[in-house]
């Protein structure tokens, strides 16, 4: 059995542990948590085989260390494990932002940074914690790895194989490209959903609005139920790309607003038609890709 040490046994870390167990991929999983209660819950749910209270011992005997905590916790955790890493230990993470962590990892881990393989599973949910973990979460989903020219190819293979065991499709790109793409397709939509729900909830007659909100509101705002801590950390870590995406979106809203002001139905129809085609094409491609995998 190989030893996997998971920092943060919540939705993402717990789902990885469950997926490896159900694939019988030969990993013994030990969890490290912030609160004892959540770790005990992970143990009771059978997500992990053991709990670690000795970081030095666990880090030195781990084959792989996965950091699956909110992104602001990743750098402090790298500091805490750096002195104890075994000579063969490969470190990876599941954070939703990549450039900030990659820059720090070189400074903190020194030579061992060659065995740090940053990663990001593109699968998730608005639910958090160990009870949200699912064995099938990564099945057919992309996992993006962002190694650089200094990353050890054997370490990349180790992390690639770990994710392949979960049924995921592994892709590689550089960290800056990753952060630009996910600012647009993940981080901005979360900000918009949080903003819409917050604005409505602050109205004196909010209850009346919520009482009649239906599937359109539910689909647009599902992700506003996500972990506030996780999204605070992501927003700050990918701040500059996210600010640019907010500018693009505000520009698009301004164009929409002036079409409305001018009662320009032709412009509205043209925009809705282009968006509807693009959205339906994307959804169809998702279905085709899932069928293929
Ligand atoms: N939720 C998603 O959809 C999703 C998808 C892909 C990647 N991610 C990324 O994965 C990471 C984990 O997200 P999640 O959804 O599993 O969150 P989660 O809240 O479900 O789990 C995070 C766990 O980390 C623990 N934790 C926090 N600080 C810690 C510390 N210092 N040491 C040890 N444990 C600590 C928490 O107690 C919690 O159990 C985040 O970086 C997030 O950006 C999330
Ligand atoms: O399905 C959801 O609830 C998600 O928000 C998952 C989602 C996404 O935006 O697609 C969220 C953050 C991650 O880093 C990756 C995936």
UniProtKB/TrEMBL annotation:
Keyword NAD (UniProt): yes
EC number: 1.3.1.12
Gene3D superfamilies in UniProt: 6-phosphogluconate dehydrogenase C-terminal like domain, NAD(P)-binding Rossmann-like Domain
InterPro entries: 6-PGluconate_DH-like_C_sf, NAD(P)-bd_dom_sf, PDH_C, PDH_N, Preph/Arog_dehydrog, Prephen_DH
Superkingdom in the source lineage: Bacteria
Domain Prephenate/arogenate dehydrogenase span(s) in chain numbering: 2-290
Pfam families: PDH_C, PDH_N
Alphabetical GO biological process terms: tyrosine biosynthetic process
Keywords tagged on the record: Amino-acid biosynthesis, Aromatic amino acid biosynthesis, NAD, Oxidoreductase, Tyrosine biosynthesis
The keyword Amino-acid biosynthesis is assigned to this record: yes
UniProt pathway annotation: Amino-acid biosynthesis; L-tyrosine biosynthesis; (4-hydroxyphenyl)pyruvate from prephenate (NAD(+) route): step 1/1
Transmembrane segments: none
Catalytic activity from the UniProt record: prephenate + NAD(+) = 3-(4-hydroxyphenyl)pyruvate + CO2 + NADH
Single GO MF descriptor: NAD+ binding
Recorded family membership: Belongs to the prephenate/arogenate dehydrogenase family.
Protein name from the UniProt record: prephenate dehydrogenase
UniProt source species: Methylobacillus rhizosphaerae
């Amino acid at each position: 059995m190989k030893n996997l040490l998971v920092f943060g046994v919540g939705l993402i870390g717990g789902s990885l542990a469950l997926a490896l167990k159900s694939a019988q991929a030969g990993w013994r999983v030990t969890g490290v948590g912030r609160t004892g209660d959540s770790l005990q819950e992970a143990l009771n749910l059978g997500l992990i085989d053991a709990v670690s209270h000795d970081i030095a011992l666990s880090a030195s005997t781990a084959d792989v260390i996965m950091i699956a905590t909110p992104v602001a916790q990743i750098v402090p955790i790298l500091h805490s494990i750096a002195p104890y890493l075994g000579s063969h230990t490969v470190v990876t993470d599941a954070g939703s932002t990549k450039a900030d962590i990659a820059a720090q990892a070189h400074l903190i881990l020194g030579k061992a940074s060659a065995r740090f393989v940053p990663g990001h599973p593109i699968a998730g949910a608005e639910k958090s914690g160990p009870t949200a973990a699912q064995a099938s979460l990564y099945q057919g989903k992309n996992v993006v790895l962002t190694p650089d020219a200094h990353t050890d190819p054997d370490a990349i293979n180790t992390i690639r194989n770990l994710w392949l065991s979960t049924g995921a499709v592994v892709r590689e790109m550089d960290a800056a490209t990753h952060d630009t793409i996910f600012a647009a397709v993940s981080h901005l939509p979360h900000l918009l959903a949080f903003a819409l729900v917050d604005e409505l909830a602050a109205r004196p007659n909010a209850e009346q609005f919520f009482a009649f909100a239906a599937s359109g509101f539910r689909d647009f705002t599902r992700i506003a139920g996500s972990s506030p801590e996780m999204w605070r950390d992501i927003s700050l870590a990918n701040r500059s790309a996210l600010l640019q995406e907010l500018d693009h979106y505000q520009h698009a809203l301004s164009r929409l607003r002036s079409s409305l002001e001018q009662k320009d139905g032709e412009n509205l129809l043209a925009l809705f038609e282009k968006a509807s085609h693009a959205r339906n094409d994307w959804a169809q491609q998702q279905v085709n890709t899932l069928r293929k995998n």
